[in-house]
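Quick one: Glucokinase regulatory protein second SIS domain-containing protein from Adineta steineri, structure tokens please.
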Amino acid sequence: MARRTHVSKWINDTTFYDIALRMETTEGALVINPIIGPEPVSGSSRMKGGSATKVILDTVFYLASCNNVMKASEVIEMYRTAVGTMEIEGQDIATVVEQAGECLLNNASIRYVGSSTFGIWGMIDASECVPTYNSSYNEIRGFMA
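--- reply ---
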């Protein structure tokens, strides 16, 4: 199903079809093709349906970093577990979001404080609030412990 459309600046007028054929015979090649319904795969995580893109990139980079110790299906199962947990904790998450909104409405601020991966997530979320929601630098900030 790959297109034979030439991609500008690819060497020798290579098409995605050419790459797909090469990957069929390359040991260790990985293709992740999500079935995502109405949410498109996009180039941004900010309010543009980028969660499918994030799942794809996280899966590929995680598998690359662990030298194929885990299978792609195991990584996807970890995501399913995380989504299931989010569904279970949905009301508590909604409460925290409402409290954060109240803080901003009352001229208070939101601070993310975390370490390791969780700290990085907080930093990324805080950094995206300025361009996405036009928040000020002092309204929402992230800190790494």
